[in-house]
Amino acid sequence: xxxxxxxxxxxxxxxxxxxxxxxxxxxxxxxxxxxxxxxxxxxxxxxxxxxxxxxxxxxxxxxxxxxxxxxxxxxxxxxxxxxxxxxxxxxxxxxxxxxxxxxxxxxxxxxxxxxxxxxxxxxxxxxxxxxxxxxxxxxxxxxxxxxxxxxxxxxxxxxxxxxxxxxxxxxxxxxxxxxxxxxxxxxxxxxxxxxxxxxxxxxxxxxxxxxxxxxxxxxxxxxxxxxxxxxxxxxxxxxxxxxxxxxxxxxxxxxxxxxxxxxx
Length: 264
Fold this sequence. Notes:
Shape: globular
Radius of gyration: 19 Å
Order of helices and strands: HEHEHEHEEHEEEHEHHH
Distance between the termini: 71 Å
Largest sheet: 9 strands, mixed
Oligomer: single chain
Low-confidence stretches: 1-17
């Protein structure tokens, strides 16, 4: 006797969701009407089926929220209210996240192509830390390589970040269970470096997607406040790795800067 087994569409969707981890993608914005739509579209157009999308706006006074509301049916949670800083908004997003993993994709930055998240998660094997490569993009759409060499999975560790943000933080998908809040004090500019190091000290397994995942809009906080960023990076590496290691790495970075002909 032949028995037909039929799975209804709801069961099929639930099966797919169970096979793929839920990823909370958090976008923070402030007066970003010029850029936020491309960020939102890059997230909601992903072929990956199990995304929770969160938008945290810092009480924008331009048309940012009009654009957010335009896509409200594709966004799981959004709010617009004053915050203490860019990083305070990121912490608010993390507090609302319910996914297995967390990814930040801030206003102006975007996921490179619709299949990127699907490709990045393929073969992830429940790794603690999933990462990839970024490229810079300017307002005209011109692209150039990330300013640091991204370490391969067999070499990446907390100490890799002695050299700064060797992985763009928009190319980091981390288990929510080990994702800490960003410290708001004493750091004001380079909080992402401290955050990445604290994560890597907990990481036991990594997965690397060897392709461009994120297009990062040039002109971020640390680029605008370069002197402060350099000092904070040094203080952060001293805190985590000691004075001698931090000084030696600064000599290496200084030599790299001289070779390139300017600060990065």
